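Box 3.1 A note on notation
Throughout this textbook, protein chains are presented in two layers. The first layer is the amino acid sequence; the second is a token string describing backbone geometry. Keep the layers aligned when reading.
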Amino acid sequence: MPPAASPALIDVLIVTGPLGAGKTTAVNRLLKEEVAAGRRVAVLINEFGAVSVDGSLVDAERPELAGVENLVNGCVCCSLRDDVVATLRAWCDQRDGVRPQRVVLETTGLADPTDLVDLELDAALAGRLRIAGLLTVVSCLGPVDHLRTRPLLHRQTALASLIYLSKGDLDPSAAVAWESELRAAFKEIPLVHSRQGVPAEGAPDPWRGDLRPAPEGWAPTTGTSFADARSITVHWDHPLDPAALEALLLAPPPLGELLRAKGVCAFAGWAPRNDGSDRWAFQLADGRLEVSPLPLPSGGAPPDCAGVVIGTGLDAAFWKKSLRDLERPPEGARRKVILPR
């Protein structure tokens, strides 16, 4: 009797890029295409914070995925690498017909992907998966000199097999400047413009990337620009004042630099939508605040309301109080008291 054939390798696409560049939007588009093509696809999301806001966005949009795993409060390229390997190994161990054929691995914007490009060589994964490509999403709304002054962004981009330059429709002149800078620095890496996660027509297939090995001696690093980055998370019990949220997030912080803010909430005075959901997702990136409807996930239970701010040198006490003060409890309701630990 001939030996059983080895299971087909699982293709893994790494999606990286700075905070707020539009990675989750691109990931949702990629997942939608895979599902439409009839392939079993799973997603592994890493977020810098205590709750997975991006996971809620993906879960609500793509209930038919073969698997969704959220890794929080760490970085896939260092403290959570073991969790990444364990998750991928568990998916590899699944039987035919259930095992994902493809996996999208979305890193936090503070992750250096250097230590991910060799995942297929890990003893637990060797011969079971292959890294199909590394897609880096870069927003043109950030200062163009960040490519030179922020080592982490340079490393995220230098390892790419394909670069998406996002949000060019919001500032065409900035898109031209960023394209010029990226093409000068990385002549051999394909670069395409993307809008809402959709690349320009004729763009290369990110799953067929020519993966670039890390230069010899290039060890993973969090990057000096974000070495002191921290996240602050607040859970909400009641709807928020939308105008107060906008004012808080768009004003300069009293201390430090606010790099990113995101969350899931309900808004005071806003009625549930026709789909029955009263949840909204908000995202602050590049000085722009965007609010979008969040559908009910496949289970029907709305996600918990929580907000995350990420930055350097932030005043934690200020942000915790300010985020809690956004709540507008219904008449007769009382706000929960958070006891010190």
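The chain has two domains: 10-224, 228-324. Residues 40 and 100 are 5 Å apart (CA to CA).
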